[in-house]
Amino acid sequence: MISKLTMIKALNAGLRRALEADPKVVIAGEDVGKLGGVFRVTEGLQKDFGEHRVIDSPLAESGIIGTAVGMALRGYRPVCEIQFDGFVFPAFDQIVSQVARLHFRSQGRLLMPIVIRIPYGGGIGAVEHHSESPEALFCHTPGLKVVTCSNPADAYWMIQQAIASDDPIIFFEPKRRYHERADVDESAPPPPLHSARIARSGSDLTLVAYGPMVKTCLDAAEAAASEGRDLEVIDLRSLSPLDLALVAESVQKTGRAVTVHEAPLNLGLGAELAARISEQCFYSLEAPVLRVGGFDTPYPPSRAEEEYLPDLDRVLDMVDRSLAY
Amino acid sequence: MSDASGASAEVELVQLLTPEGLRVEHPLYSFDGDDEQIRGWYHDMVLTRRIDAEATALQRQGELGLWASCLGQEAAQIGSGRALCDQDIVFPTYREHGVAWCLGVDPIHLLAFYRGVDLGGWDSQAHRFHLYTIVIGAQTLHATGYAMAVERDGLVGTGDPGRDVAVLGYFGDGATSQGDVNEAFVFASSYNAPIVFFCQNNQWAISEPIERQSRIPLYRRASGFGFPGVRVDGNDVLAVYAVTTAALDRARTGSGPSFIEAFTYRMGAHTTSDDPTRYRLADELEHWRLKDPIERVRAYLTRNGSGDEAFFAGVEAEAADYAADLRVRCLSLPEPAMIDLFDEVYAEQTPYLVEQKARYGDYLATFEEAPA
């Protein structure tokens, strides 16, 4: 069955399927119940599955994650919503010191099948702390897995796969893409959760992106095509672990790679990608791996965010620089 | 104790056995068991103290990286640990060696943890004793979430005391300043979770006295969160047992959370890395030595004719044998190897870690291949 859904509706449908499939799945977060979440991702779920399964939490992020740990220890599969990216930090300790480590600490006896959903990224004209891209902090934490969807179909499948995973998963949702519509085929079997995909095939250069920047890169590739440049776009989907095999295969073909993310450049995903692409594709590279990202400033006031966020022109500028080598 | 909380302790403290070993009545709590039970707890406390002393000695000899002694807190731990039913579960800090003993966790696991052999080697689900948590107060949220899950499982207030589950979450006086502990109180109260918050107020958070954490007696904080709090003489095993039993029953029957402040004293250092002579007076130690949790039970049993010299000597001998054996087992604990740890990070291993492990294995092999 194919339907055209926004990412919000796709996530909602995926969460609904997960709640139906496993009675141990519970959703917890601020305003996720009666209100349906501030973005309405959980709309209608409390009404249909009850207050015991779709839980309006007290306004305390560490409490949301810490109690999810306890519920997981009794066999539940909590799906926690952090309302905005910038509000995950009160829960950071529980995530990195507890959620990420209990499987390791217990020699594998304890499972932490917790999904932490975080709407992230900028571009919506928000107030401070509502436009952050903290994904690298979680990728740097052993024991966590980190994924992000770029389109409604992935959103629908990846949230279900994340909930089915026995490992803790930080699930980043690009909030500026929440309202974009695309086909979702609920009968097509999805690719593995921790696999990247080629969003557009090309031969001249590989753009490596994820989440909100995939569309930006596809737009850039479209523009470049009109100038006779054939760019390949990879949607990473999984940020930890990285599906580097697909990236390496692409770069060995094109000889050039540009990484693109909203997060600041310093020690961001682009840095890790550059290091590993250099190591694995050294003899294929025609140019150093170049990076496009947010600046290494705190996220700016929203009237400056259009300058801060990588856009089509900044991506193409870096493409030019790469091709100039 | 010259502070407000210490002064008020005299009137607010639930006590059933005085430091002199005399049974006293309390209007709300009573101990209805027999002396055989008390002899058992005496045995538990002596064994706990002896294991604790052995661990401290092992650390001093370089065999443990660290040890957090529970010296002086045996009654708080045995009294509460023995109040648990078979289906209840405990979330400890890193000092609940006596509670671990009650739940059948082999002390060798506690030593392995502090020796640096592993990060928690016991089966926490089977023993109903979660792994030690070092981040102060973090486990109170885990305990609360677990209690919320118990409630979802329909195992609260069924009327079957052999089925209904209560959760016992431990923490210290310092932890009451942590956000996580306060959030745990809010969540537990909001969801009416079947949990007992058991605070061992041992008066010191490393070097900081209780006055730095609270201007009011800790147990009174509970009322601000909407559940009852009680201060019990933490060196009185009978009173701790009675108070904890009542609180666990309350949780099991669906009446919600409660807070127990076990008023006790950390007779030793915070850990073996600490030097308490830098911040507290010997007088204070002497004051609390007179309230020793084990001596008062011994005095009671002696006075009551329920324990003679042969009994006490027998327990001492058993403890000494146990400690000697534990020492041998500690020294023969296997060393962990990095190469084995890559596989324990995830339930579903990642290609990246497989590769990293393989490369490290290749690196290790270069040493083996070196000619003799």
Question: What topology emerges from the helices and strands here?
Answer:
The complex is a heterodimer of chains A (325) and B (372).
Chain A lengths: L1 E5 H15 L3 E5 L15 H5 L4 E3 L4 H13 L3 E5 L10 H8 L2 H4 L9 E6 L14 H5 L5 E4 L3 H13 L4 E6 L6 E5 L11 E4 L4 E5 L3 H13 L5 E5 L2 E3 L3 H11 L2 E8 L4 H13 L8 E5 L10 H4 L3 H12 L2
Parallel strand pairs in A: 2-3, 2-4, 4-5, 5-7, 6-7, 10-11, 10-13, 13-14
Antiparallel strand pairs in A: 1-8, 6-12, 9-11
Chain B lengths: L3 H9 L22 H26 L13 H8 L7 E3 L5 H6 L4 H9 L8 H4 L10 H15 L14 E6 L6 H12 L4 E7 L2 E2 L2 E2 H4 L7 H5 L3 E5 L3 H16 L5 E6 L18 H8 L3 H11 L5 H23 L6 H4 L9 H18 L4
Parallel strand pairs in B: 1-2, 2-3, 3-7, 6-7
Antiparallel strand pairs in B: 4-5
Question: What features would you highlight for this structure?
Answer:
heterodimer, A: 325 residues, alpha/beta, Rossmann fold, five-stranded mixed β-sheet, B: 372 residues, 2 domains, five-stranded parallel β-sheet, two-stranded antiparallel sheet, 16 helices, 48% helix
Give the N-terminus to C-terminus distance of chain B in angstroms.
66 Å
Assign the structural class of chain B, choosing from mainly alpha, mainly beta, alpha/beta, alpha+beta, or little secondary structure.
alpha/beta
Name the overall outline of chain A: globular
User: What's the overall average pLDDT of chain B, rounded?
Assistant: 95
The figure for the number of domains of chain B is 2
CATH superfamily of the largest domain in chain B: Thiamin diphosphate (ThDP)-binding fold, Pyr/PP domains
The stretches of 5 or more residues of chain A where confidence is low (pLDDT under 50) are none
Biggest interface reads: A-B, 46 and 44 residues
Number of domains of chain A: 2
What profile does the largest beta sheet of chain A have?
7 strands, mixed
Known CATH architecture of the largest domain in chain A = 3-Layer(aba) Sandwich
